[in-house]
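Severity: low
Component: inverse-folding endpoint
Summary: output formatting inconsistent between runs
Steps to reproduce: submit the following structure tokens with default settings.
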């Protein structure tokens, strides 16, 4: 799963958006998102098993999320961020 965070043109012209990623049947959906600097992504676990969200660059690592729990991260810089579940 990958996020593509576009370059910051003028953050005053962009109203921050929250994007949803659902964890269902041991997969994350959507698998790819294009976001802007300042946007937030919220992962929500909808599985019976606990899941987390992590990335290769060490930018975030959520605690294990039980069913119905969520974790959010706001992206302060542009880049490509791969995300996955550790367990």
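Observed output (run 2 of 3):
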């Amino acid at each position: 799963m990958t996020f593509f965070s576009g370059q910051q043109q003028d953050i005053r012209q962009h109203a921050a958006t929250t994007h949803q990623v659902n964890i269902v049947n041991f997969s994350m959906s959507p698998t790819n998102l294009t976001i802007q600097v300042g946007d937030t992504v919220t992962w929500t676990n909808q599985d019976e098993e606990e899941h987390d969200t992590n990335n290769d660059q060490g930018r975030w690592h959520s605690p294990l999320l039980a069913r119905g729990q969520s974790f959010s991260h706001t992206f302060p810089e542009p880049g490509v961020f791969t995300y996955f579940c550790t367990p």
